[in-house]
Design brief:
There is one protein chain. The chain contains five helices and seven strands; from the N terminus they run βαββαβαββααβ. Strand 1, helix 1 and strand 2 form a beta-alpha-beta unit. It has one domain: Spore Coat Polysaccharide Biosynthesis Protein SpsA, Chain A. It is 28% helix and 22% strand. The chain is an alpha/beta fold.
């Protein structure tokens, strides 16, 4: 098993196509993991990716995300709260707390999607559902739904916390500001 980290980009904002193209450029085996990381994510601990790879080698979940500070869904938010705090020191403290108290733990997500900001999935699952939907800003929600429909578990790695800039520039409620994603 190999783990491939990707962070693709397209100026036309077709994120689903960007991810699909990046994966098609890889040399993957079916059991390899893909870890998609958004451009606006910051890993705050030097051992975060080590923890991710340890979890990927032993989990029964087929789609995983991480904990964060800013996101529309609550399953991946630290304390289920959307944060307006932009202090990296504040978020480093949370990352250390998550690491110390939840290292290696995965919480199953029964209903909601896994956000694409950091999304880990098996190459074979991506291939079997035909990749990500293109020209659609809800590509990660649709991908999560399709993985779940296959009977696979979704989970969040509770010990891995990232700072997610997520629409910090927005003048309105950032959770619902999708203008930057619109094609």
């Amino acid at each position: 098993m190999k783990t491939h980290y990707i962070s693709p980009f397209r100026t036309d904002k077709n994120i689903g196509k960007a991810i699909n193209d990046a994966i098609n450029d890889l040399r993957c085996n079916d059991e390899d993991w893909i870890v998609h990381v958004d451009q606006d994510v910051c890993f705050l601990r030097p051992d975060s990716k080590k923890q991710i790879e340890e979890i990927l080698s032993s989990t029964d979940c087929r789609l995983l995300g991480v904990m964060t500070d800013r996101l529309n869904g609550k399953d991946q938010l630290h304390d289920s709260l959307f944060s307006e705090n932009d202090s990296i020191q504040h978020h480093l403290s949370i990352a250390n707390d998550c690491h110390d108290n939840y290292y290696g733990q995965v919480k199953e997500v029964k209903r909601g999607p896994i956000a694409a900001m950091v999304m880990c999935f098996k190459y074979s699952d991506w291939k079997s559902i035909g990749g990500f939907k293109e020209n659609n800003i809800q590509f990660d929600i649709q991908f999560s739904d399709e993985i779940r429909l296959k009977g696979c578990k979704l989970g969040v790695m509770k010990g891995v916390y990232v700072f997610h800039l997520y629409r910090m520039w927005s003048n309105k409620d950032a959770r619902f500001d999708t203008k930057h994603l619109e094609i």
